[in-house]
Amino acid sequence: MLNVRTFTVYPVLPEKLEPLLTLSRNLWWTWNEEAVDLFRRIDPELWDGCGHQPRLLLKLASQARLDRLAGDADYLDRLERVQEKLTAYCRCRAWFQEGQGEAGPPLTAYFSAEFGLHESLPIYSGGLGVLAGDHLKAASDLGLPLVGVGLFYRYGYFHQHLDREGSQVENYRENRVDELPLEVVEAAPGQPLQVAVDFPGRTVLARVWRVQVGRIDLFLLDTNRDGNREEDRRITDNLYGGDEETRIQQEMILGIGGHRALAAMGIEPRCCHMNEGHSAFLGLERIRVLMEREGLSWQEARAALVPATVFTTHTPVPAGNDVFPPELLRPYFAAYLEGMGIGWEDFLRLGRTDPGDGSEHFCMTVLALRLARHRNGVSRLHGAVSRNMWKSLWPETPEMEIPIDSVTNGIHTPTWIGPELKELLARHLGPAWAEPPLAPELFRQVEAIPDEELWQVHRRAKTRLARHVRRCLETQHRRRGDCPEVAESAARAFDPEALTIGFARRFASYKRGSLIFRDLERITRILTRPGERVQLLFAGKAHPRNEEGKEFIRRIHRAAGDPGLRFAVIFLEDYDMDLARHLVQGVDLWLNNPRRPLEASGTSGMKVAANGGPNLSVLDGWWCEGYRPERGWAIGGGETWEDREEQDRADARAIYELLETEVVPQFYRRDGRGIPREWVARMKANLAGTLPEFDTGRMVKEYTEKYYLPAATLGRAMLADGCRRARAEAAWQERVLGAWQGVAIDRVESEPCTALTVGGRIQVKAALRLAGLDAGEVAVEIYHGPLTEEGRIDQAQVNPMRLTGSNGDGSFTFAGEIPCLDSGRRGYLLRVRPRDAVGRICTDPGLIKWG
Fold first, then answer.
1. Residues 37 and 163 in one domain
2. What's the confidence (pLDDT) of residue 664?
3. Domain for residue 1, yes or no?
4. Per-residue confidence band for 477, with pLDDT thresholds at 50, 70 and 90
5. Which CATH number is 791's domain given?
6. Looking at the predicted structure, is the pLDDT value of residue 104 above 80?
7. Four-residue CA torsion sign, 307, 311, 317, 319
8. C-alpha 789, offset from chain centre
């Protein structure tokens, strides 16, 4: 056989189509339907085949097709309109400019290990990355001066296939930079910017790429470059790949290298936001730089920067928090810390829940909690779970007062709402319906949309889902080598008329992906009832090292292969953002059954609700806030179980009963025109309430007002006048810490607590020793409330006490009162906490004394 030499010929883009290159470089196109359609019209089949990558599409399209489009007046008109729309978007005054004036230097730098912006840039694995991507898009829509910092992974996260037994097979594909919307950042013309991070015995270089996300710059670092050792070039190969040492290396490149990249570009954000603990080394690098620049001590630089730092924790699952053995960290940080004047043991204490436990590993989440003043979970329940999870960092502080708040996640509405629904909402709510932050009062008009119109819009989205599912199944069967009859039958697999339930997410153990098959006989009856057919669509990946998650997938695969359930259960491989969009826009119902309270948020359910779909979910994460009886169904009553087996049994039984008695009958209950009026009412309730409540416009606005602006103000104050306030704060902390052991409540006096009635008051006096601190440097408080059966104070209230005098022995007296607002057994305690120089009550760990 002749050895044929191969070569590739690329088309020449006609001059009239050159605006397509501009569009392809800005991911704004991913949430603009007209822009997407411009690329799709070039060649619909090629568009799907190249993974919706515009730059690759323009390389592979036929010259004849491009030439024809260059002469198509309608296409050129559309191209010009979209180009003008992008220009206007980038120049318009948005929410931030209206409230804060023209943006100056970046307010916030947002660091994350993954960003899920679109399937064409596969550097994400799941919800954390998609949330980060939606965060950037919403920041762009709001005009927020923010930059993103992450890593560019050469092979990204793994692609998933199932073998004939249903076992997950992982493979990796290279992300080619010439096919992606990346531009190399240059230090000088023709000279790529690179930053250096010291590793044991060598220096590792990282190149910096820019991704344009509307008005936002996202900077991605990668180590695959000349000048690095071969093993160092592979550091940024895989997201969440490699061993513990690889994770340390990646997180140093992200946190330390990311900060150095911003500095090299002259970008100095006024506050930094660490999205999960992966970027916590950022806090160390910021402190090191400030020490060097301003001649500050460690304590002074830390005092300056902690108030200007935000940290969001996303997981209540221990496995989701990176921990490293000290002996693995030491080669990487010994010299780094020595240059900052920090002892090794002092460093380890920053990452330990119990600083005195020498056997405890170093936790990145603990480091982030200690180096940020603004801390939050991602739903109200997750905030409470996080306070319980990390309460040992604040010993003796009541759990409700642990300084971890919450900002409930949201979704970027233009990214996730189906095109048909966008048109419907624009027609009935007006063209400005999607301007962020969404106006809840505007969405009350959803009730006036005719049921027939909304139902037809949903049916069209479901038809699109049906086509996509059939294509996916046909590909899966052919790849597996199934017989032609099986592959061809995939064309009939999905019934658009059947009630379709979606379940798609990471196959983490706590998400219980196969729970619905606990009673196979019962679920079979539900799925195959004549005239009321139900079909289940599953998708999701298990982490390569999570064997339990892989077994969940095998169990679903076996159910899908059961002759009695043929095509009633479908597993779709290689879950990505493209498949996610089809699912959340087209399914009738979303199923979510995590083991409460381990679901931090669960944004997939929000995406379905934003498209009108009801949820059938455990009351966990966002659904605790989003659930209303008119919007969907709750599995259980919000119980938390000690016995996992009993929990699984109860939740599975609740799912079956809800499907049998409420969900399925309601979906199939139609009027004379074939409309399920009760079901459509649920859809409207979701659009009217869930959509504006759980939009990232609301979320990012909340972050800005609650954290970014206050953090920036505090940070600026700390650095003013040669860091005068930071130096004073550090001196105050040192003085308070030195004196705190001697602070004590010597005596407490109160009136006799007999014959009290509602409306009365109890007068309380106390004598305190302050060990050299001034009376104005402490907050003395009465902590009171109803008593539980165990004698603990519950639902406490706090009343301040006032200074009434000082005694000759160096002690002080304080007085206060307890109002008797309700009847029942009640109790009180006294406590002392320090105040800083501006009167703020300090919530730092360990600084609290109880009487």
1. no
2. 98
3. no
4. confident
5. 2.60.40
6. no
7. negative
8. 39
Neighbours of 214 (CB within 10 A): 21
In terms of residue numbers, what domain contains 87? 15-91
pLDDT value, residue 148: 98
Question: Which helix H or strand E contains 584, and what residues bound it?
Answer: helix 577-586
Closest CA to 209 of 258, 164, 145: 258
- Alpha-carbon span 142 to 148, nearest angstrom: 15
- CA 152/CA 149 separation, integer angstroms: 10
Q: Which of 91, 125, 140 is the last residue of a domain?
A: 91
- Check residue 760 and give its pLDDT: 86
Tokens of 204: 């590792």
* Amino acid in position 219: F
pTM, entire model: 0.95
Q: Exposed, middle or buried by CB within 10 Å (0-12, 13-18, 19+), for 260?
A: buried
Distances (CA, A) of 225 to 81, 154, 206, 350, 675: 40, 11, 7, 33, 60
Check whether 487 has a pLDDT greater than 80.
no
Residue 212 has pLDDT above 90, yes or no: yes
Query: How far, in Å, CA of 221 to CA of 204, rounded?
Result: 12
Query: Residue 851 has what pLDDT?
Result: 84
Are residue 781 and residue 714 in the same domain, yes or no?
A: no
What is the spatial distance between Cα 222 and Cα 184, in angstroms, rounded to a whole number? 11
Residue 369 and residue 455 in one domain: no
Task: Report how far apart, in Å, the C-alpha atoms of 651 and of each of 49, 86, 394, 596 are.
Answer: 41, 48, 35, 10
**Hey, what are 486's tokens?**
């099986």
Question: Helices marked H in 44-153 — which ranges?
Answer: 44-49, 54-60, 63-70, 73-91, 95-100, 127-142
* CA atoms of 12 and 23, how far apart (whole Å): 17
The helix-helix angle for 244-252 and 326-338 (nearest 10°) equals 30
Residues 6+ apart with CB under 8 A from 757: 820
Q: How far apart are CA 379 and CA 743, in angstroms?
A: 37
Q: Using pLDDT thresholds of 50, 70 and 90, give the confidence band for residue 521.
A: very high
What is the rounded distance in angstroms from the CA atom of residue 778 to the CA atom of residue 772? 11
Average pLDDT, the chain: 94
Task: List 312's β-bridge partners, or say none.
Answer: 275, 376
Q: Has residue 424 been placed in a domain? A: no
> How do residues 581-612 score in pLDDT, each as one tens digit?
999 999 999 999 999 999 999 999 999 999 99
Domain co-membership, 87 together with 109: no
**What is the domain count for the chain?**
4
Distances (CA, A) of 680 to 380, 462, 526, 614: 29, 15, 22, 10
User: Which element (helix H / strand E) includes 648?
Assistant: helix 644-658
% of the chain beyond a pLDDT of 70: 99
**Residue 625's domain is classified under what CATH number?**
3.40.50.2000
Task: Give the contacts of 7 (CB within 8 A, at least 6 positions apart).
Answer: none
CA contacts within 13 A on the Cβ side of 775: 16
Return the closest-CA partner of residue 535 out of 544, 526, 547, 522. 526
Higher pLDDT pick, 748 / 633: 633
Q: Is residue 538 classed as helix, strand or coil in its secondary structure?
A: strand
Return all residues near 247 (Cβ < 8 A) that are at least 6 apart. 322, 324
